[in-house]
């Protein structure tokens, strides 16, 4: 048995196979049928605009010889993409097999649907005679760039962004919950000034919030200006129409995009590079988060909650592996590699047009798919961990040397105030604490050996590693949501 002979066809990639459940929402917007459906929407809305005008005056078609379409006829046209089902997908594929051109196949598909208008709307419907209006004055890229922009916009706003927001909200909730839980910091992997677990998580929520704000304000550009961006065919066919105003109206108000007035045959894709760059940056923040959480688990700061019946290791029954964070880490790397390639290649085109962007853009779904899978794993992973307060407290208690920082800083202030014996504070604290095991008694004895004023000495002696967290808890409230 050849696997290629099995029907339905076996998925080649894990996104459409093993991880289909997690990535399926993107199929609605970034699959090949989704792109073709959006192409149909562009085509029929263009027919409606040409027939019914663009200034709200339904009695003034753009082209001479046209009569305004009725409400029923507009509804019939708009139902064509909405009814693009499995049979329609197969019919479009059959046309493309002959034409070897996906957009031309869309045009013929719409022609077929117009032939049905008489039986649905009556013999007096004008639609069967309007095949020449399909794709009027358009180059394929007029259709493609608008369809792609709408597909990407919907995928980001309705699928990727909500998933990223959910993870960020999880982090925000954790930051609030653990805002006052003291924790030993490690800088360069060495014990350092304590912080709180909530503040460290808030750092990630804040970073992600900024990037998601950039994504939310992203422009999605579109062009509709002909074969080389000059409206040449438009003007030749109908010189009296205000084609620039018509184009702006169509792109901005009918398609819901930002109008790009200056392009070659293609829309320049700069907005895509901007968007994918921002999402890639977001991925790298999430990657940093996944690695940090993995190391916190390894260190014992976070404990994992075992899933009943799940196997951690095939040979070591005691293990609960942090696989969700590892899965997220790997998929974020894959997503970034694709997004970075898209950003780098889409902004270049030979002279007025080459076709490298066409096949490249068919990987947008894979780029966002790996990111969506990572977000799903991060969300599940964050739900399955909780602080191990015993380990956290033990780490703090075993590292009294971290109080060297506040003591030497207080010595500097005392020296400036004129107290004796406070010179070279850094060196004196270093001699006491570097390379030694330090206890509370050692710290208190050192403080007593110095000529601090009583209030400062008492304040320093009440410090402990667990109590030396500064304003960490307060800083959680500055997280950018």
Automatic annotation (TrEMBL):
Lyase in keyword set: yes
UniProt-listed GO biological process terms: IMP biosynthetic process
Gene3D superfamilies in the record: Fumarase/aspartase (C-terminal domain), Fumarase/aspartase (Central domain), Fumarase/aspartase (N-terminal domain)
A Pfam family that the UniProt record links to this protein: ASL_C
Alphabetic keyword roster: Lyase, Purine biosynthesis
Residues making up the signal peptide according to the UniProt record: none
Domain Adenylosuccinate lyase PurB C-terminal: from-to ranges: 349-469
PROSITE patterns referenced in this protein's UniProt entry, alphabetically: FUMARATE_LYASES
InterPro entries referenced in this protein's UniProt entry, alphabetically: Fumarase/histidase_N (IPR024083), Fumarate_lyase_CS (IPR020557), Fumarate_lyase_fam (IPR000362), Fumarate_lyase_N (IPR022761), L-Aspartase-like (IPR008948), PurB_bact (IPR047136), PurB_C (IPR013539)
Pathway terms, separated by semicolons: Purine metabolism; AMP biosynthesis via de novo pathway; AMP from IMP: step 2/2; Purine metabolism; IMP biosynthesis via de novo pathway; 5-amino-1-(5-phospho-D-ribosyl)imidazole-4-carboxamide from 5-amino-1-(5-phospho-D-ribosyl)imidazole-4-carboxylate: step 2/2
Name of the protein described by the UniProt record: Adenylosuccinate lyase
Gene source species: Bifidobacterium subtile
